[in-house]
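Why predict the complex rather than its parts? Because the way molecules touch one another can change local conformation, and only a joint prediction can capture that. The input here totals 1105 residues.
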Amino acid sequence: MLNDIFIKPFIDMVEAPDFLLQVLWEGLVSGILYALIALGFVLIFRSSRIFNFAQGIMVVFAALTLVGLHAMGVPAWICVILTLGVMFLLAVTIERVVLRPLVGQPDIILFMATIGITLFLIGLGEIIFGGENKVMITEELGIPTDSVVLEPWGGLLILEQKDITAVIVAALLVVALLLFLNKTRMGRAIRALGDDHQAALSVGISLQQIWVLVWFIAGIIALVTGIAWGARAGVSFALEVIAYKALPVLMLGGLESITGAIIGGLLIGMMEKLFEIYWGQPLLGGNTETWFAFVLALIVLLFRPQGLFGERIIERV
Amino acid sequence: MLYRTAGQFKTSYQADQALFPVRQDAVLLAIILAFAWGGLPLLASEFAFQTLLIPILIYSLAALGLNLLTGFAGQLSLGTAAFMGVGAYACYKMVTLMPWMNPVVAILLSGGFSAGVGVAFGIPSLRIKGFYLAIATLAAQFFLVWLFEKWGWLYNYNASGAIQVPNLTMFGIYVSGPQADSRVQYYVVLAVVMLMTWMCINLTRGTLGRTWKATRDMDIAAELIGINLMRSKLTAFAVSSYVVGVAGALFVFMWRGAAEPNLFDIPLSFRILFIAIIGGLGSVMGNYLGAILIVGLPVVLGTVPEALGIPISSATVEHLNVMIVGALIVFFLIIEPHGLARLWALIREKLIIWPFPH
Amino acid sequence: MTKFTRIAAAAALGAMVGQAAMAEGLSTPNLAYRTGPFAATGIPLMNGQADYMAMLNARDGGIGGIPIDFFECETGYSTEKGVECYEKTKSNAIVSQPWSTGITLQVLPKTNVDQIPILASGYGFSPMADGKVFHWAFNTPLSYWDGASIILKYIKEMGDLSGKKVAFLHLDHPFGKEPLPYLEMKAESEGFELLPIPVGLKEMQNQSAQWLQVRRERPDYVIMWGWGAMNAGAITEAVKTKFPMDKMLGVWWSGHDADLRLVGEDGKGYKSVSWSFPNSDAPVMADVKKLVVDAGKSQTSPEEMDGVFYSRGLVISAILAEGITVAQEHAGKPDISPADLRWGLENLNLTQARLDELGLSGMVPPFSTSCANHTGHSGGWILEWDGAKFVKASDLIMPESEAISELETAKAREYAEANAPWPVNEDCQM
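Output of the joint prediction:
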């Protein structure tokens, strides 16, 4: 028993290094996608203290809009632009209809409101686009679909080109986002709002504008996530459940930290895959990915209650 | 006029702290209870029992359990459904291992198991707060559902992995399983729910409840005035999980008749959270109002187009239903973030001074 | 006050609706799922079912001169909604079609009390085949154990099974676990290694862990028990990990055209067992097209109509319609009761001649039921994806009936004991 837990998995890893690399790569790709969703959460949380549960359904909604528009015969790239337009409209609507009347309410109320938004969008999406599984327009968007086959140490390592693309695009997106937040006026305004609402308001930063902007950026991230994930497994409402995976990432990385979201995402993606393959499947009957990330995050939090990168919590009476 | 409180004098502290300091409240409750015990069972159809009355009661109880934790002790939990599952599986194991056991006793005991599990998963609350804690409770949610699936002993190694409620009798009458009459089940549920509610009301009014409220309002301050936070938080998890576990056992034994692990997955948790929040956090009555809205509304909405003869496919109705529920949640949060219980409190205040407002 | 006025209003409305459902004709509700993660599989099936009944109503004015009131109640594949739908529709229904193994299991014990037959064509609980124990439940024409048996027989034709490793990739759900008892039994008797790989409901779209396991374990065959979004996920992963497609076989619910279209050419060689097959030249298809689709009464599309699942939906409705016809002849009146329909479904005799007469040539194998045999065990074909559509890759293969019926009887007894008191059909002498 102890042998199965502490020794055998590591021997397996060393014996088949190509397989270990494959496992890590699969974990990395999932991790990137978790990180992207978590990023959407963090952005909104930082600027408005809203724990936006609707990020998952926004991913589905963006992907469905893209595919749905393309099915109507619109060229792929125009679809992307139109989808961005739809996400912008969504951001404006959410800000106007839901957030503005709820300013200043307790966190849990805002959280529930985003669950309400989630339900609403699920119903709306099903009515407009129907519930069936759809194919992501991968090729039309110019994403290569072949795979790269490497043979390290005489083994086999299969890298999907679309996964490589996803990794690169995600990296670019993160860099762009960091530049935007640190170098532009708007970006600084967002950060200022995250630090202190009232101080930001008093120096003339418009809350409404920033909220719309932040939700729109979250929409862009949702679209990228939707394309990347949709290319892997098709577009359907079942995608929504991946949003749950972003939650332990947030716990681990801290609710306010962008770096935390990215590192947390990659860490969780790879760790859960390693655990599942080397411990979960042989010893526990598999499917440990549903809870492993949560338990891991929970254990980390017991030692660092603010997450790995969260702001230190100082409590005063 | 009907609700006039003038003239009801209190001469002792006991009288002032009574459950119903205002006589009309007691009368109103008596009427509602009489109706629930006598009136409804005569009027309702089988459909109403199965889709409205029984589920509303059970959901109310589950929401009440959650409300003890979230509304009274301030610990946000997203894992309610998993604790319901613990109750349900514990009850199933008990009645299959000990078939002679009285089903109601089994249901009440099964809450004890979920209380134990609840305390175990409540330990992180001593370190973690707010949304971090909420996500931590999700660990319980996902882990327990996974366990229900993988641990064959829990479902007696049934090939399908689902549990089937056996036919159980109490005093010669079937109370659970396919042979049981809905009316009997309704009475059992009503009795258990009443007992639990009575217990919860008194708990929340007593020392324990006040400790919880102090913890909720500011735990550091509570600690400074000498409240043992560990005891306060863990008792909240224990009592809350107990009530939720009993609700889970009722859910499967008195209503569903069978259960598969993913029944206790996150949508159920959210549903109960909706009920607690729409009903009003920190209120006992709110849970009932919330359950009536969240459970009853979709059922009623689903029957509207048919009743009006609007030709619309059932799938579209379902989608519209989801949309309407989502929109309603947002709507209620906007008009009354403190929930339906608060709305009732406002109405009651108006009634007290009616017809002579200031 | 608000509390009980609301309950009263709801109860009154509920009661009112109970009566409002009383429409013209024979009430045959369908607990459909056109929404949720499984909608992809559900929609074509539901369309096929509805269109066949609409066609009968348009062509013959129903069955035996009485129109069929075929209507859907949406469950979204949720067991909770399913039970609600069952309660809502049962008042004057002559049949219930629960459409999910979870809902079937839930409704099954109630049928004895409510005395309404449930028709679960190609799904549900395999021991339902034992009609002596399960009076009111039917899973024509094949059960999951039959399906698993046909797949194993087909694999055996390609080579010996002993010493091989067979991965069983299944949804972690009552549906996916259903064939396990049979497969475990066979693994022992045939001497192959069975490797169950569960796919959680949340993992359906992202099965990389499962397929890494497949890659590590290198099974000789993968048998797939998937539904809805899981199929597409599995097939794309299989293509990605370069698992030989001709070594991958699925149950009938995993043979959905739309899922395979996702991978197109790459999926070539993938196989699925099926007890139905699309035949665009069958007279019944022409009738459906003329009377229902062209009349604008259908939600289907031409592409979907050629698919396996649409025709399967059609066949399911045809089986139900045949059951009604038989019941009407037996009862001597068109307005049959649920008990009459049960008799009808127990005495189906769909010979090839009868199938041709109904215009269903080549769409379903001939089969017959009896009071002891509620499945029919029709046998099935292995279908192969040729890159654009499914084609037949084998002749009709019959499941091994002896071992299966033994297992069915044993498990049915177990079920009856666990649910005692459970009435057993004493009249059935077969």
